[in-house]
């Protein structure tokens, strides 16, 4: 029995399902009232929320926390929302909703083709923004589950050709290592227990005879091969592993 971050006491097989429900949302907004209101409402909806009040801090949090979605204000101190969006898009496809102050700004932002996924003009109702967030989460999940090629930073995984590239160079993986990576990717950021990984990669019959340490050994080997993107294959203490796509 381990203590769970939510203060629950469950065995590891049961509590991974609770852990995977919390999606992370980053709010980058310098207007404190708006930021507070959003944070309060998003947490009430069950999201884990991080907030930054300027562009630089927002970019830093986007890199360190790997959020599942970013609510990004356009006019920000230090680094504008446009700059932040451009820099995030260099190596992440995380869904981004831009907040703009005027209709004209929205038109301008749209014209720039920054790669934001949606736009909301201020003043907006929290209820409307929440609806947009939910619909964007739905859309981006459909996109990932249909994808033939998954990109994460410098990593590119072609699920049909069984090819993995790191910074455009082919990475040699064994078929088990590839399947392992594929299973983690299809979990879309959710945590998988060692037992789940064993069953998905080796099949139920074999899994009962294989030690769960085999999973750890495969993770270690994969991390070496994933080079600069190794940290995406994250250990979730006492539970298992997950792959951070964003
Ligand atoms: Ca602002």
Question: What attributes does this structure have?
Answer:
246 residues; alpha/beta; Rossmann fold; Arc Repressor Mutant, subunit A; 2 domains; four-stranded antiparallel sheet; 10 helices; 14 strands; elongated; disordered N terminus; binds calcium ion
Q: Strand percentage, roughly?
A: 15-25%
Tally of helical runs:
10
What would CATH call the architecture of the largest domain?
3-Layer(aba) Sandwich
| The CATH homology group name of the largest domain | Response regulator
Number of strands: 14
Whole-number total of structural domains: 2
Which geometry do the CA atoms define? elongated
CATH topology of the largest domain: Rossmann fold
CATH class of the largest domain: Alpha Beta
N to C succession of SSEs: EEHEHEHEHEHEHEEEEHEHHHEE
Round the Cα radius of gyration to an integer and report it.
19 Å
Which ligands does the model contain, each kind named once? calcium ion
Low-confidence stretches are: 1-20
- For the residues shown, what is the average pLDDT? 85
Helix % is 40-55%
Secondary structure category:
alpha/beta
- How far from one another are the termini? 31 Å
- Main sheet: strand order: 4-3-5-6-7
The biggest beta sheet, please?
A: 5 strands, parallel
């Amino acid at each position: 029995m381990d203590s769970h971050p939510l203060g629950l006491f469950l065995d590891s097989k049961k509590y991974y399902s609770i852990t995977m429900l919390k999606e992370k949302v980053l709010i980058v907004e310098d207007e404190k009232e708006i930021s507070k209101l959003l944070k309060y409402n998003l947490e009430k909806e069950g999201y884990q929320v991080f907030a930054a009040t300027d562009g630089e801090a927002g970019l830093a949090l986007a890199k360190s926390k790997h959020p599942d979605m970013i609510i990004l204000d356009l006019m920000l101190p230090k680094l504008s929302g446009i700059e932040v969006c451009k820099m995030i898009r260099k190596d992440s496809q995380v869904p981004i909703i831009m907040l703009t102050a005027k209709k004209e700004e929205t038109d301008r932002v749209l014209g720039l083709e920054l790669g934001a996924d949606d736009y909301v003009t201020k003043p907006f109702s929290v209820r409307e923004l929440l609806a947009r967030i939910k619909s964007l989460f739905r859309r981006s999940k459909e996109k990932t589950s249909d994808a033939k090629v998954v990109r994460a930073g410098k990593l590119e995984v072609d699920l049909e050709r069984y090819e993995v590239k790191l910074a455009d160079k082919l990475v040699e993986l064994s078929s088990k290592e590839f399947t392992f990576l594929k299973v983690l990717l299809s979990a879309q950021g959710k945590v998988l227990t060692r037992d789940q990984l064993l069953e998905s990669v080796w099949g139920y019959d074999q899994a009962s005879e294989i030690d769960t340490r085999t999973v750890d050994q495969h993770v270690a080997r994969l991390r070496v091969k994933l080079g600069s993107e190794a940290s995406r294959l994250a250990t979730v203490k006492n539970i298992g592993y997950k792959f951070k796509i964003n």
